[in-house]
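Collaborator request, handled under Task 6.
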Amino acid sequence: MTTTSSAVVVGVDSTSSSSQALVWAAQAARDRHLRLVLVHAVGHPMTALDAIYDDQIREGAHDLLEKAATRVRESWPEVAVTTHVAGTPATHALAELSREAALVVVGTHRLSRAERVLAGSLSYAVAAASWCPVVVVPRLPGDDAAGVVVGADGSADGVLAVRLAAEEAERTGQELHVVHAWQEPATYLSADYVPSGFGEQLADAEAVILGESVAGLADAHPDLVVRRHLVQAQPARALLDVAATARLVVVGSRGRTGLTRALLGSVSHDVVLHAPCPVMVARTREHVRAEHH
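Structure tokens returned to the collaborator:
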């Protein structure tokens, strides 16, 4: 297997979304001073006929990757580029390479509701199964896009997401927008009697969670501008609203890893599928190992 230690790994195919992911990944590798590994997965041969044409399939894959590598070398000559043809399905290949990578980048296209139900999303599966942070690129941010947006909910996943978002905002010279969304519990909304001042007390408690989520950022990133957003709304909707003009949105991963039960939390799921800009799903090898104990 191609070693990916200290590298940005990007999935490459012939789609326009893959082309945009390649651009994002090349810039990320340049900014991080890391190698860029271009990966195309051909899958397992399913029939004897597939096996006969396997050499031709692999030759086509190598040609595709070499064209992509040439594009990177011409536009970002300072980035070291290697290529890798994987003989497994794309989700398996990228998840396996993520064990040693610093970052995995994948393109995506917007799926209809029926497609999401019937086929799911390759980018979503990779984000859920990865051992390192994954960036899903539906499209490149426009020239007027600004800011890194992150969701904070007081959980360990949220803390990790805020830390990674702060690092990304500082690296790219962007402001950091930390969003904490909350809703009144359904039991109180449906009750005939709500204690006086309950709403204010709840809002104060949620403000404390937001404050704790950004604690320490000023010391770790003294030059970083941090904007707090305390929103009474459904969390995914709140994040998507703030991220409407952002360069990047960062979410935690609330699911178990693994290729048979690749699940993200519902908020992360919705943001990955609907965000108007690249989405980083925060994962680390330590984070993933903890899920197995």
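The cover message to the collaborator said: "The domain at 1-107 is CATH 3.40.50.12370 (Rossmann fold). The CA atoms of residues 124 and 211 lie 30 Å apart. Please let us know whether this matches your experimental observations."
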